[in-house]
């Protein structure tokens, strides 16, 4: 109701202009979902899994297209597989670990957005990661294909491989890692707040 949308996270990214919003339905009341296959297209006509708390997905397979919206921390672990064409948005932190896979290729990739910290440990990601928290950590033989954008004061890449681009407001600490210029997922022209050139502001690009 009204003409604004309030950000319930700590950063106060409130919206005053929006286009045709609709309500989705929470797909699960559980805070931990294990050993399940979830087809987002069968949840409701919004293709949206919503959780108004923290959520852990352990050894799960999530098939898109669709969205995963979590108001707390989102943990993806236990070898979970998230198919492409899924937007993953958390007002808390996003933690991906234990040989989990996000996306299947750059043309079938995912968008990861965390209002807080982001940790990717020993997993594979295809897509775009946006971290607005204080800490970004990519470690333990993680393979990341696509783009990473962060305003984190502490950003580290340890023992991992990135093929694509890293854009950071602050310096990034690379340790025993490789960064190779590569293609980005098809994000331009989509409603993620990007302009047709470089993300606005004074940033370091790697």
Write a brief caption for the model.
The protein is mainly β. The chain has strands spanning 32-34, 37-39, 48-51, 55-58, 61-63, 66-70, 74-77, 81-82, 86-90, 94-96, 101-102, 110-114, 118-121, 124-131, 135-139, 143-150, 154-158, 161-168, 173-175, 178-181, 204-205.
| Residue share in β-strands | 35-45%
- Can you write the helix and strand succession as a string? EEEEEEEEEEEEEEEEEEEEE
* Distance, first to last CA: 42 Å
Count of alpha and pi helical runs: 0
Portion in helices: under 10%
- Class based on secondary structure composition and strand pairing: mainly beta
Radius of gyration: 16 Å
Taking the sheet with the most strands, its summary is: 13 strands, mixed
Mean pLDDT: 85
How many β-strand runs?
21
Give the CA-based shape: globular
Uncertain segments = 23-28, 195-203
How are the SSEs ordered, and which strands pair?
Elements: E1 32-34, E2 37-39, E3 48-51, E4 55-58, E5 61-63, E6 66-70, E7 74-77, E8 81-82, E9 86-90, E10 94-96, E11 101-102, E12 110-114, E13 118-121, E14 124-131, E15 135-139, E16 143-150, E17 154-158, E18 161-168, E19 173-175, E20 178-181, E21 204-205
Parallel strand pairs: 1-4, 2-5, 3-6, 4-7, 5-8, 6-9, 7-10, 8-11, 9-12, 10-13, 11-14, 12-14, 13-15, 14-16, 15-17, 16-18, 17-19, 18-20
Antiparallel strand pairs: 18-21
